[in-house]
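Researcher: Quick sanity check before group meeting.
Model: Go ahead. Protein one:
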Amino acid sequence: MKYNRKPVAGYVTTLLFVAMTIACSTEPTLEPANQSPDGAESRLDNAIVGDTLAVVKYANGNFVSFYEFAPGEVAIRHSLVLPDKPGAERARMAATEHIDDVLDQLSAENKSLVDIYKAISTTPESDVMNRLAKAQARLTTAKAAPKEPQSFPDEPVPSQQARAASARSAAAGCAPDYYNDSYGAQWFIDHYINENRFRKSMTNEAYARIRTENDSWTKVAAMAADFGTGIHFSGERFLPCPLFGIGGGCRWEHRWGFDIAPRGVEVWYIYSDKAYSSKAAGYDPCRRVHLGVCNDTPNINAWNF
């Protein structure tokens, strides 16, 4: 089902494609990342598992990147920085370059990674399309395999370390709600949790966690709602318990983990039929996060402790 989708053409005239590689990582850091709220370069250097297939960068500091977490498990990340103070001339929605609408539409139409890349790049490159096509083939094969049974272990309560004060949140208190809109809570839902058949969101929480069991694709979005305090955003994939006790399953395996600067938004489109857990943890003193998901099945569980 689609909601207020816009045509793809016309949104991609100012894009610049840049391909780069990000090293694999293990566990997400819980310390503040050394990143500028305004630049894409530092935000790209995050703790993300797997291979970077492509990156499309925007003049306003936003970017879209394509990843293969593991063979047959691919995702697209849309990283945004929004105007953070009242009086900004351009509307907040302009910061997205409407790319979220494009990604929503093409995902709903079950378009391939190559199709999506070509739709948002003015200079598509053959070597990049070749990488994406190979990743797409591995994804198709993985989805055709028999579905593994799911039996989830308990997920831990968030550690206090994840909520510890950060250097970026050293202010004496939280910033005022400049737009008088509950720190953009409904705006976040309207613009990012508006696609696919089943949806769930939590806003203005100190900590939020959402688990999804997917069929074809799911969309997860997190926002650092406070104007002066960032948050930590992470995701894991569930590895099912092995049959007859053979193999190493029954655990959650890290996929991404990084800080989101104040008023930043991170959106993940995950094209997989596996189960994922996404977490957003606020830093002191405000601990204010928005987290939401648009899923293709009703299998959504959410917690705010």
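Researcher: Fine. The other one?
Model: Protein two, sequence then structure:
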Amino acid sequence: MRDEAPSPRPPREELRGALPDLRVLRDDSHMGTLLGRIAPGAVPPLMTALTGLLVVGTLLVAGRGQLAGITLFAPVAALLLSGLASGHPHDGPYDWLVPPVLRVTEYAYLAVLGSASGVPGPLVFVLLVAVVCHHRDDVSRSAVGVTRPSWVRAAALGWDGRMLVIAIGGASHALAVGYGVLAVYLWVLLVREAVRTWSATEVTDVRTSATTIPSGGAADQGDPRIARPGHGDGGRPAAGTNGEA
């Protein structure tokens, strides 16, 4: 038997065009976006993201994760480093690692600072879950070629904006309050956007067509509204999405 020749691999440009825009998955705030306009394409995004992660980790270790001047400065350092690369097209072979690196930076800062500074554990957990759900929403929508409205993404403050809010809360001696306010704010925003998306989704009413019973055959017992293989719509699920997750 002759082996079939492997199908040719699509060009790199076509594969890249099918991938989501990594600049959207970065989840930068307005401040980070503005910094990226200073020298778009001049600063390598992966190197700056890794450097920002290293700086944040170093400052957290130096301050033992507790509330201190160096730990409160960590978000500013990460913003100044990674924000400069937000305008880069992210077309490098390893630039897909930038969003995960930024996620680790944000999660580590929120978790370590809160846990080491006496913020109640459940409050830290609730905030982290809200941030994770926010990022999951971006990834799910990008997988089907859509994004959330720009104002919703801006209202979520961005990874750097959320870190700065916590830093401001710590500088104001209200770190636990900052965690609580930010968690409630993000959850309200997520629930509102979920309700808006589901309300705007059109659901097609699927109706099964009447079938003819063969002569001498027994009638099909059961609910006629249930589609069966070979009848009506062939058992396919009802189409009901406008492309938004």
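Researcher: One line on it for the slide.
Model: Residues 23 and 86 are 7 Å apart (CA to CA).
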